[in-house]
Amino acid sequence: MTTRTVDTTQELAAFLRTRRERLDPDVFGLPSRRRSRRTPGLRREEVAELAGVSVDYIVRLEQARGLRPSAEVVEALARALRLAPDERAYLFDLARQRPRDADKLATVAAPPLARLVADLSPLPVMLMNHRYDILAWNDEMARLLVDFDTLPPPRRNSMWLCFKHPEIRDFSVDRERVMREGIAHLRAAWAAHPDDQALIDLIADFTADDEFARLWAERDVKVKGRGSKVIRHPEAGVLELHFEVLTPLQDQDQRLVIYRAMDEESQSSLDSLFAR
Q1: What is the pLDDT of residues 202-218, one digit of tens each?
Q2: What are the residues whose beta carbons fall under 8 Å from the beta carbon of 3, sequence distance 6 or more?
Q3: Is 90 helix (H, G, I), strand (E, B) or coil?
Q4: Where is the HTH cro/C1-type domain positioned along the sequence (predicted)?
C-alpha cells in the first residue's frame, strides 16, 4: 500500500463505502427487504434516500468517477451515514470543501509559542505542526521522551517516535490503542493537507510496516484534544499521564501539547526524573 500519490477521489470513494458498510440497517427503521442482504451495512439506494440524492450519484461517488460533491451534499451524506464530528470534518476535507492556505503551513515555531513552551516548565511541553513535526520543546519533555537535539530534524516527529523509534515505540503500555489513535490523527491531517508532500512521504514510509498498513486501511478518523496514556519509562518506571492539546487562534497550524501526571505516584516519579 502507498500514499505517495494522494488521490482524494479514490479515498472519498473508499471512505464512503466503508462507512456505509459499517451501519446497522435495523437502527434506521428502513422497510424490511424480502431478499437477504449480500453485503453488510446499508445499500446504496438506502443511503441515497437518506441523503436526498440519486442512487446513480452514490454509485458514481463510490466508484471514484470524478464527482466533487458540494458542501450541501457532503453535509447530507454526513448526516445519512451518521458520521462522528471528526469523520464529518474528514469527509469535508476529502471533498475539498474546507478552506486551506498552503502558505501558512508551519515549519518553524512561532516565537511567542516557543517562549510559552519554556515558560510552562516544569510541565513537559512540546509544540508541533499539522504533520506532527516537533518544532519546540522544553527540558522536561526531552527528559520524558528523548533528547531531541540528538535527532536529525526529519526524525523530530512525534509519529515517527511513536511508530519507529527503537526505544520510544515500546514506551506505551497499550501500544495497539496508541497506534490506532495516532493513525486516526494522521489520516485527518492527510485529508486536510493533501498537497503536503512531506506528510505524504512520511505516511508512505510508515505504510511499509505491515502493522501500520493494516490499521491505516481501516480508515479510522479521530482528532483528540485530550486524553491519557500509560508509559514504561526506562528511568522513571510506569507513569500515568494526561495530555492536553491546544491550538492557538493566531497560529492554528501549530499545536501545544502539555503533559501532566494523573496521580501522586506518577508526579513523584516525574519530579525525581526532572531533578536528575
Answers
A1: 999 999 999 999 999 99
A2: 190, 200, 203, 204, 207
A3: helix
A4: 41-88
Which of 3.30.230.40, 3.20.20.140, 3.30.450.180, 3.40.1410.10 is the CATH number of 104-275?
A: 3.30.450.180
Name the nearest CA neighbour of 61 among 91, 25, 100: 91
Angle 85-135-171 from CA coordinates, rounded to 5°: 75
C-alpha grid cell, residue 37: 442482504
Domains of the chain: which residue ranges? Answer: 8-94, 104-275
Helices (H) and strands (E) counted in the chain, each on its own, are 12, 5
pLDDT in tens, 146-197: 999 999 999 999 999 999 998 898 899 999 999 999 999 999 999 888 888 8
User: Cα(136)–Cα(254) distance, rounded to whole angstroms?
Assistant: 10
Asked whether the whole model's pTM tops 0.85, one would answer: no
CATH number for the domain whose boundaries are 8-94: 1.10.260.40
Q: In sequence order, what are the residues at sequence separation of 6 or more whose Cβ sits closer than 8 angstroms to the Cβ of residue 70? A: 97
